[in-house]
Structure formats: C-alpha cells, structure tokens
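sorry for the late reply, my laptop died twice this morning and i had to redo everyting from scratch. anyway the thing you sent over, i finally got around to it. pasting the sequence first so we're on the same page, its 323 residues, then the predicted structure underneath. double check i copied it right bc i was rushing
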Amino acid sequence: MTQPNPTENQAKARQLLGMKGAAPGETSIWKIRLQLMKPITWIPLIWGVVCGAASSGGYVWSPEDFLKALTCMLLSGPLMTGYTQTLNDFYDREIDAINEPYRPIPSGAISIPQVVAQIILLLLGGIAVAYGLDQWAGHEFPMLTALTLGGAFIAYIYSAPPLKLKQNGWLGNYALGASYIALPWWAGHALFGTLNWTIVVLTLIYSLAGLGIAVVNDFKSVEGDRQLGLKSLPVMFGVMSAAWICVVMIDVFQAGVAGYLIWINQKIYATLVLLLIIPQITFQDMYFLRNPLENDVKYQASAQPFLVLGMLVTGLALGHAGV
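ok and here's the structure:
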C-alpha cells in the first residue's frame, strides 16, 4: 500500500486548516466544513480572550474561571470566527474561483444550501453560548450577547453586498483588525470585569496594528481582486507600497501602545512590548519586504508570535494598573 509522502500530508493539513496552498480532493463533509471555518484563523481570537481576561484584573486561577475562559474561547474561535470565515467564503466564491479554486465552494465539494445551513447554525450557536456566558457571569446587561451580535453584523457587512467593506482596503482591513483584536479582548474583559471606555479606545487603537496584519492576507488574492475591481491596498498602491504600509502600521501602533503604558507608569511592561517589536522588524526585513507575494505565510509564522506576546504583555499591564 502506497504511503502518502510528506508533501501530500502537508497539503492535506493545510487544506484542513484553511490555509493557502491546499490540495483539492477532500471528500469527508465534516473535514470540508472544518476547512470552511479556517481553524488557523481561530488562534488570534482565542488569544484575544486571554488578553482581555488579563486586562480585567478579575481572572483567578480556579476551575470555574478556567471553564468560563474556555467557553469564551469556543465562542470567539470556532463559533464566531467559523461563522465569519464561512460567510466570507460564501460571498467570495467568485474571487476564490480565480485565486483559490481548490476551496470547498468553488471546487463543488460542498453545496450552497449546506454552506448556508452552516452559517446559520454557527451564528445561532454563538448567540446561545454568549447568552449562557452572560447568565453565568451574572450580567444585568447581556454584554457578551451584544458583542456577539455586533461582531456578527460587522462580519456580514464586511463580506456581503451592498456595503461589502472588504472592497475598501482601509475600511475592510480595519474592520478585520478590530474583529481580531478588539472584539475578543472586550469579550474576555467583560466576562471577568467591567468593560470601560479606556479599554475600548485602547484596543481600537491597537487594532490599527491589526489593520497591518489584515493587509498581509490581501497579497494572496491580488490578481483576483484586480479582476473583480476590489480596492485592496496591494491593488490600490502596488505590492511593495502596500507591504510598507503593512509593516509601518504594525510597528508604529504597537510602539504607541508601549508609550501609553509608560504614561500610566507601567514601564517594565512597556519595555517588554518595545523589545518584542525588534524581532518583528527583523522578520519584516528578512521576508516580507523582500518578496511579500512569496513570503506572506512565512512572515506571519515568524513575526506574529511577537505581536500576540506583546498583546498579552499589554493586557497584564492594564490588569496590574487597574485600568
């Protein structure tokens, strides 16, 4: 019996995770459904919940709080990010037919009614879990339910006409960045503390660094975006100019958050955030700025861990300061 070679195994793993460069041919409907949900994209939102819990100052290491956090991660990652990614693939099926024809919908691996059913079930599941968390936390106002409904609305107007925010490089990428940084952060903070305007504004500023991260995803679809008239930043400004916009946004707004930590007298945490920017700049120069089209995935894998570590350091600083 012929054993799959490492390249085939890698292609299957990439397909299951929803990554670029997958191979067609998957027949299991459950694996296809999982591919639509792009598990690789759940990680930053799960991490955002951790950062929010840290910034709240109210998380304690107890079985109950641990289970609350895990449930909130389920809400932010598999359910709501899975909903967002499936919805996005549904409305991007024409673009994917050009850029990534192996994706489940353009390849015909899953029918449109099955995709619609998945979108509805994930959304309803997310709302139900959010409401359950509100009850568990004893919220008078169902903050987590409101955040879930707000996030679902942003996901819809990001992907669907007539607004389809992703057609605009600035608005679309900021909406994506805020969804990946601010929304799960607010959820984690609200679950273990009281969400306040300082946290809201600071994380929305932090999301401008997330805008830079979101731009990275546009480089894999430049040709399809250009053909269909979508104004992504690489289409609007050219590949290299968009790459510079991307890295500057990431570095400058992280440094700005470090400046805020200095202002609230959290100098050690601020120093750690600044130190974490250094390896990011190194990988930006090594990979992304030299060839953004070929090295986008390699850059994300090497540099983004330092961004997310910086987010956690910031969350711990805010929790320590009692912001």
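The two ends are 61 Å apart (CA to CA).
thats about all i looked at so far, will dig more tmrw
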